[in-house]
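FW: tagging you since you asked about this chain on Friday. Here's the raw sequence from the shared folder, copied in full. Didn't touch anything.
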Amino acid sequence: MSDFINSFWSYYVVVIVVVSFVGMAALLMTSSRVRGNAGKQPTTGHIWDESLQEMNNPLPRWWKGLFIITLIFGVVYLILYPGLGSYAGVLGWSSAGSYDDQNNALKAKIEPMYKKFAGMPIEQLAGDKEAMGIGQRIFLNNCAQCHGSDAKGTKEFPDLTGAYGWRWGDSPQKIEETITQGRTGIMPPQGAAMGTPADVENVANYVLSLSKGPHDAAKAALGEAKFKTTCAACHGPDGKGNQLLGSQDLTKKIWQRGWGLNAIIHQINTGRTGQMPTWGGKLTPEQIHVVAAFVWGLSHKPGEAPAASASPAAAAPVAQ
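HL: got it, structure written out here
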């Protein structure tokens, strides 16, 4: 409660807490004053069926004792711990501080293990069963929500098993970079730039022809020139994408956001924005190194030598 936007709310909480304690003490005192007289017990004055009376007996002593102990405990707690507005308490405890302490203790405990992994190249680390078990758990806890527990992705999220290639590059360094920094892929709306709806349909047919999908050959021929003047800047004149931009390879049947003529027309007209969030502030560099090895191992063999970097224009498709 130390982050109130102004002092009013701190005083507001203090008043509520103090009034509550005073009210409970007053209730206890007034209830304790009730006493019976010479065999005649006091009543509340409520009578039913002429003779049935509601008695007003004193509270049991054991109950009053527990009540008093509870009040004392509450006062001591509010002295030691936060609870009175912005007052931090004598001990200076906070939930955020406790969380940080537990995290730091955990990091100190696992640091030697991660230190060993940090000195291993990803290609070698991918063959370490212990590291891959840890990497898989990190992946399931943080990445599976989008990419699936089997890493094969869904309609909006890329397949990481390498079945369709990698839009941003599949080298160990690129995968670590993607996890650490995140990625933002933008496909701007191109309907207006294409011209008429017929032009958009022609280009969509040409895009389908690149992956040998069902298309109208005549319309595809008409759309080729428009594709090369409007789309080639990102996807390349041959449609094979660009790793530097993360643009998709259109020569493969990778339709992450829907397949078919209508889906492609819709994407040309409306554009798309896909974002891979940054994990640099959520995972340690050592954890990123391990989970990157796990992801790399989904499409490569442990110990495999890094492939030569493809030229940007010839880069592969769907990425992390």
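FW: The CA atoms of residues 23 and 93 lie 28 Å apart.
HL: agreed, and The longest helix spans residues 7-32.
FW: great, closing this out.
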